Amino acid sequence: MISKKIVENLSNSSWIRAMFEEGAKLRKLHGDNNVYDFTLGNPDPEPPESVKESLKNLVMSGKPGIHRYMSNAGFNDVREKIAENINNETGLILSESHIIMTCGAAGGLNVVLKTLLNPDEEVIIFSPYFAEYKFYIENHSGKTVVVSPVKDTFEPDMKEFENSINKNTKAIIINSPNNPSGYIYREDTLRSILKIIEDKEKQFNTTIYVISDEPYNKLIYDDVKLPSILKIFKNSFVINSFSKSLSLPGERIGYIAVNPQLSDIDLLINSLVFCNRILGYVNAPALFQKVIAQSIDANVDVEIYKTRRDLLYDILTKTGFSCTKPQGAFYLFPKSPIDDDVEFVKHALKYNLLLVPGKGFGCPGYFRLTYCVSNETIKNSYSAFESLAKDYGL
Ligand SMILES: Cc1ncc(COP(=O)(O)O)c(C=O)c1O
């Protein structure tokens, strides 16, 4: 028989499949244009032209060796380019040795967690959180500890955070811009987290690592600046990918940037590279390492997402929903008009609206919308939201 834990986890996340099946059923019944599916975070803008050009040129170049294995950390020249790019943005001094190429941000997270965790050590995550974190932590025998937000905000409750740390706390995961809220942590919030970590490290004589999951770091609006985690936290890793910034989620290309100030850094880096190997990733996709190195300064057109954010935010607020305007990623996370967000999301199906309940992100009472859909779909959804709002007296 297969693992009991997997069967249990599968049934706990069966709502994802249920939503997918519901969407397919509604589309068949009403046609694609009459179903408003805001569930999937699958970037739809095409990758920049420079990415396609690089890919074509690399494939056609006929250069021998381009499809072979390389170091488990990735190609040296690619890692050098990424280090240089981080240095230019932050003023830090990373070399290629501080970069490990991974199979997307998901691969990077698993490599770091595998490297750090002893059985039953704890990892703190802040709600609302990316639902996969719990599975990734469990993959490596860790325990997830969830810290809630301050009521009606997406700011971590610092008192609860402080009380959640004990001698078994190994790491915290920060995700900013956040999935599902689109929220960006301000520098003073990060400094408050740092102060608590430093005090607790002294109290327990431990090291608490900060894992910063940043796949949305290039999807930022309104001229907001993302504070540099590597500059604020000495014991930190940045996990990033090109899934959103270059619209390449299916190509599985990302990296880990290791803070050069970490102690035992040589052992740490060797361990990360080893874990990339033994988790079976072996190395990040060869061709796409080369592609992203040639497009390191490219980005998808952020205006596409900003326009959609504004359109969808206007519809929601005009129809009476309560929503904070996010400044990053491609999500909106409004309040459910009733406490039971699962019930609310089920009711929305009546108007062919597909939404995701906040419960799945550890934040009941909210619902998530992804704007990886066309402007037309967003505009056409107005009357559906209007009818839905009316049902709840908004
Ligand atoms: C917060 C967060 N982290 C990690 C990932 C995984 O990204 P990747 O496709 O680069 O593995 C996602 C994907 O949606 C995400 O939302």
Write a structural description.
Helix 8 links the parallel strand 5 and strand 6. This protein has 2 domains: 136 residues, Aspartate Aminotransferase, domain 1; 246 residues, Aspartate Aminotransferase, domain 2, CATH 3.40.640.10. With 394 residues, the chain is of the alpha/beta class. The protein is built from 15 helices and 12 strands. The N and C termini lie far apart (50 Å). Helix 3 crosses helix 11. The strands form 3 sheets. A 7-stranded mixed sheet has the order 2-8-7-6-5-3-4, with helices on both faces. Strands 9-12-11 form a 3-stranded antiparallel sheet. Strands 1-10 form a two-stranded parallel ribbon. It is globular. It binds pyridoxal-5'-phosphate. The site of pyridoxal-5'-phosphate (PLP) has 13 residues, from helix 5.
Features:
394 residues; alpha/beta; 2 domains; Aspartate Aminotransferase, domain 2; Aspartate Aminotransferase, domain 1; binds pyridoxal-5'-phosphate
- Biggest pleated sheet: 7 strands, mixed
- The strand line-up of the biggest sheet is 2-8-7-6-5-3-4
Between the first and last Cα atoms, what is the distance in angstroms?
50 Å
As a percent range, the share of helical residues equals: 40-55%
CATH C-level class of the largest domain is Alpha Beta
Q: From the 3D structure, determine the CATH topology of the largest domain.
A: Aspartate Aminotransferase, domain 2
Radius of gyration: 21 Å
List the bound ligands. pyridoxal-5'-phosphate
- Which class of secondary structure composition applies to the elements? alpha/beta
| Overall shape | globular
The total beta strand count reads 12
Counted up, domains total 2
Q: How large a portion of the residues is in β-strands, by DSSP E?
A: 5-15%
How many individual helices? 15
